[in-house]
Amino acid sequence: METEKLITVLTFNFVHEAAIVQGRLQSEGVECFLQNKHTVQTNPLVTNAIGGVKLQVRESDLQRSIEILKETGYIKN
Hints:
Layout: E1 6-12, H1 15-27, E2 32-35, H2 37-42, E3 53-58, H3 62-71
Antiparallel strand pairs: 1-3, 2-3
């Protein structure tokens, strides 16, 4: 079984910001994941060193995610 590639849509410095956007996408039926969530929660000082909290979606959901994030103002046109 082949797994679908995950694409980073947005990056955040704080977990709570990423969780809000994740909830928005999930409410629209888009499955998404937060990479580095636990590392940043445990030690927030490493967020810049590891590239922050990455909001990731499946490659097949990328365009829909971008449209939702533009509509809600998380991505500027």
